[in-house]
Amino acid sequence: AEMRADGLDGQYGPLLALNGVLIVLLQPSLTQVTERWRSSWVLASGCLLVGGGFFLTVFADQAAGHALAIGVWTLGEILLASTMPTVINRLAPETMRASYQGLYGLSWSVSAFAPALGAWTVQQGGAPLLWSTCLGLGLLGAALVLRLGRSPRMA
Asked: pTM of this prediction?
C-alpha cells in the first residue's frame, strides 16, 4: 500500500527482491563479523535495525527511500536469523534443546496474523502508526534482549 501510494506499483517486486539479494551477499560476511560480539548486542542491534528499517518507510516516497528501508531491516533480519538459534541452544537445558528450537520455529506461525494486524493498525491510525509501532517494538525487543543478556549463558 505504501509503494502504491508513492506510485511505485511496478517496482514492488524488484524492491522486495533486494531483501533476498542482500541476504545472499551479506549474511556470510556479516555473520563472521558479528560472531565476535556478545549475542545480546547482536540481537539488540537486529531488533533496532528491523524496527528502524520499517520506520524509515514513513519517510520513503521514492524507490531509493524504500530500498534504504528494505536494506536496513534486512540487515536486522540477518543478525536475528543468524544468532537466535545459537542463543536458544545456550539458554535451553541440554535435554530440552530440540524442544526449544521446535517451539522457536513454531512461534513463527504467529506471523500469519501480521498482515491482518498491520491492515487493522493502518485502518485505525494510518500508516505512520504502523511504522511507528514497528519502531516501538524494535526498541522494546532490544531492551528485553539486553536485559536477558545479563545471563551468563547468553554470552
From this structure: 0.91
